[in-house]
Amino acid sequence: MRYAVPENILRVDLSGQKLLKQELPDELARNYLGGRGANAKILWDELRAGVDPLSPFNILVFGIGPANGTIAPASGRYNVSAKSPLTGFFGDANSGGHWAAELRYAGYGNLIFYGRAEKPVYLWINDEEIEIRDASHLWGKDTWETEDIIIDELGDPEVKVACIGPAGENLVRCACVINEKTRAAGRTGMGAVMGSKNLKAIAVRGTSGVKVADPEGLFEFRKDANKLISTDLFYELYSKFGTPGLMTIYNEFGSQTHYNSKEGYVKEGVNLYGEIFTEKCVKHVSACFSCPLHCSSIYAIESGPYACVGESCEYENLTAYGTRCGNYDLESTVYASTLADKLGLDTISSGATIGFAMECWERGLITQKDTDGLIMEWGNRDAIIEALDRMAHRKGNFGNLLAEGTKRMSERIAGSENFAIHIKGLDTPAVDPRGMMAYGGLGYAVASRGGDHLRALAALGYSLPGKAKELFGSEEAADRFSIKYAAPVVKFHEEMRAVTDSLDICKYITRTALLLPDMIAKLINTLTGWGVNSSEVLRIGERIVNLERAFNLREGLTRKDDTQPKRMLKEPLKTGGAAGHVVNLEPMLDDYYKIRGWDVKTGFPTRSKLEELGLNEVVTELRKIGKLSEG
Amino acid sequence: MVKIEARYLLMFTRYTNKMNEVIEIKKENPTVKDFVVELKNRYGQKIIDALIDPKTDDVRYEPDVNGGKKAVRILLNGNMIWWMKGLDTELKDGDVIQLFG
Amino acid sequence: MLRVDLDKCSGCRTCEMACSLAHAGEFNPLKSRIRVVRKKLHGVFIPVYCMQCTSLPCAKACPVGAISRDEDTWAVLINDEKCIRCGACAQACPFGAITYDPDTKDLIKCDLCGGDPKCAKQCIDGAIVLMPFEAVGVEKRLAHAKKTAASYLTDKKWVEVVP
User: Fold this and answer.
1) What is the distance between the alpha carbons of residues A372 and A385, in angstroms, rounded to a whole number?
2) Touching check for C120 and chain A: CB below 8 Å?
3) Does A274 touch chain B if contact means CB atoms closer than 8 Å?
4) What pLDDT score was predicted for residue A461?
5) A156, A286, A508, A514: which to substitute to probe chain C, counting the most C Cβ within 10 Å?
């Protein structure tokens, strides 16, 4: 009897309109848990290197794991992965809500999509009954209309829908997947891959249950987790203010992204603080499946030109259309965030690209001729909103340029590369790495999906120095400016995050003791009965990180790609708590490669490290393409 | 006399009912400890109970779970005073103290 | 009986997980006796469960007398052995709180877990609690009185000398 692990994998050939249901192999679950890890393994095994990510040859994988659909805390997450049309490397996005639980109850751990449907379709999973349905009446509709029509059509209000909006349909490189209208699998353009396959949506309804190995143990684990979480400082922050609470924190720390990273602290930032957002816009608390943190909220702006209603307005939304663009008006920022959900655009990338365009405008590198009349001045709120719409629809030359993303845009605007803030093509989050060496300086540079904070989320820098000493042997590990401990801090967090992304539970509840490997081992054991210990937990995380690394090397990654934008390396911030600092990357990177067991000069994994992780086929392939370090 | 801008972040407004104010410390070369005394004058013992852990006589960095007291952080100009001289960190005119927790 | 605070309910459905695990040994919302109706964008989440009604409409509808009250916990219980699974109780319940287990076809409803409800145990903010009859409405009554008193007393300065 296998516990907790989802029963099946579904392979969908969209070109041939064929479906294949198979039992999910034990080894896949045992070695990779599920979710992101299983997705990475499937892509490593099945995707040919060098394909155009928007061609029918790309493979799109959805994944959940053994924790989903149970009382494990925050077990409402899923991952969607493919080769990224934005970066050309490992593309992977994670989203919350309740869709993942529904998929679990339908009995599928992974959905794998191949090829391209001739006409727009959507997949309807109704327990064992699976149908590829016509979606031509949905094509062109935003994500909210799409969900309403599908639910109405299928006649069951409990159906959960994940879909793309016009951005995905138009192959906008940062297009995302939206489930339940407001939850986003945001980064790396997975929505564009879905659009390139003419796959408009996946609707799911599941009615089976999940059995676990130690039900009482899991029940007690959850009770203990609730207690640990509720006494944490950040529990109060997240449960009362959500991530908008971080608007206050990061600006006060002087590490927020303002004006396309020109500044780290701006006084007007107070207009967008968590307290203000909560007071003016929040109507009710909201939560993802089985989550005790309930960091989300329903918000509304009741009247005026920016009237809107939505859920999950996050730190990265308020910075994307707010601070990044020099816009300190709350209502227009919240409106733009809601619009991005409807259009199906990644908030970080779309906001960063617009902010980048504004810096180009400020420097006179683009004019109204280039922007089809849009006045891209800092803080021009209506231009931000219009730019989002044009981006999603590739409207006009400027809309089309924005749709290509910051990196490609900077290649076409001479002199702009110096302030195109991305790593490997992925726009970095709105926490300035010059104020967070481990979290941002090293963390963003080495993240497998590009300039990203969630691969590591090494958020010790405003946390307890006491905890840092416990984990890394010195309080200095919690010093946000220290580079000495950046490598072990990032390595540890990357492995724990890979594990939580594969169980598929939310990272935010892994604060306090829940971040520790033996707590996660306990969770895994009550779910599956496997009897893993904490070092095995870290090994699974390490395996996933190395596999994603191998995927990227196969797609052409070199040490040069593990970098920071020039601004972060050379231009210190002028004001705020992080003033005067730049990222000193090279020593951190050397340390990181060393402790990862990778060759320091090239960043290639060593044979011994890969064999230690059981990745022998990876050894063979990397050796063939000359990206293995024989050590 | 030294003028300090006090910012009460997020949940901390529960002790002060406001987000910020200017506090004058009538001392030469005051420290964060003197600032905390000023807070007591304005908000009473309850704010000291929140900020200071009687067991360590230092900032309450760890929550007192049984006593229902949350952890707090004190920042000076955007950085935790932990990295400076803690409560003995010197203040100058125009400094910003941020209180969180 | 169970009482819910609609301001606190976040719609996370942890209660459904606790309940289905406790009663059916698996995680399955369809086997939970508490079901949350989520009207997400309206900002309201409504847990629906047996209200343990005094007038027992379900018991009155039952043709074989399978439904009765446990005098210790006050919970209304279905006797599985007498039950003929006709569903008349489910039809009679004004809340929709009685449902069919999809596998066994048993009629299932909240039984207050014998006096120690598992849903309330797992609800981190206490949005759902077990409340004795006398306590129903007390909190709200006091809160309302406090608000009314505050506005009534705003011009009665003598109150400031009350010890």
Assistant:
1) 15
2) no
3) yes
4) 52
5) A286
* Secondary structure percentages of chain B, helix, strand, coil, to 5: 30, 35, 35
Q: Does domain B2-100 have CATH number 3.30.420.10?
A: no
Q: Is B73 touching A (CB cutoff 8 A)?
A: yes
Where do we find the tokens 């989440």? C45
pLDDT at B1: 87
Query: b/e per residue, A9-23, with b = 16+ CB within 10 A?
Result: bbbbebeeeeeeeee
Class of domain C2-161: alpha beta
**pTM of the complete model:** 0.96
- Partner chains of A (3+ C-beta pairs under 8 Å): B, C
Asked whether the beta carbons of A141 and A149 are under 8 A apart, the reply is yes
Rounded to the nearest 5°, which phi and psi values hold at A143? -70, -25
Domain ranges of chain C: 2-161
Candidates C75, C116, C16; CA nearest to A71 is: C16
For residue C30, list chain A residues with Cβ-Cβ distance below 8 A: 207, 209
Instruction: Read off the pLDDT of residues C15-39 as tens digits, 9 standing for 90 and up.
Output: 999 999 999 999 999 999 999 999 9
Q: Which segments of chain B have a pLDDT < 70?
A: none
- Distant-in-sequence, close-in-space partners of A266: CB < 8 Å, separation ≥ 6: A251, A256, A258, A259, A323, A328
**Residues of chain A contacting B64 with CB distance shorter than 8 Å:** none
Q: Is B100 on the interface with A (CB under 8 A)?
A: yes
Q: How far apart are the first and last CA of chain A?
A: 41
C–B contact: 3+ Cβ pairs < 8 A: no
Q: Could you state, in order of their start, the residue ranges of all structural domains in chain A? A: 8-205, 243-422, 432-624
Q: Which amino acid, residue A115? A: G
Domain A8-205: which topology?
Aldehyde Ferredoxin Oxidoreductase;  A, domain 1 (3.60.9)
B43 inside 8 A of chain A by CB: no
For the record, the structure tokens of C95 come out as: 């809340």
Question: What is residue A78's three-state secondary structure?
Answer: strand
What is the CATH T-level fold of the domain A243-422, as seen in this structure?
1.10.569
Rounded CA-CA distance A456/A494 in Å is 4
How near does any CA of chain C get to the CA of A288, in Å?
A: 6
* Alpha helices in A140-181, H assignment, sequence order: 143-154, 166-169
Instruction: Using the structure block, give the residue that is written with the tokens 């000398």.
Output: C161
Q: For domain A432-624, say whether CATH 1.10.10.10 is its number.
A: no
Crossing angle of helices A486-503 and A585-596, in 10° steps, is 60
A551-606: per-residue pLDDT in tens? 999 999 999 999 999 999 999 999 999 999 999 999 999 999 999 999 999 999 99
Residue A34's closest CA among A68, A11, A3, A59? A68
Whether A512 shows a pLDDT value over 80: the answer reads no
Residue pair A36/A63 in contact by the 8 Å Cβ criterion: yes
Where are any strands of DSSP class E within A339-479? 422-423, 426-427
Q: Chain A within 8 Å of B92 (Cβ-Cβ)?
A: no
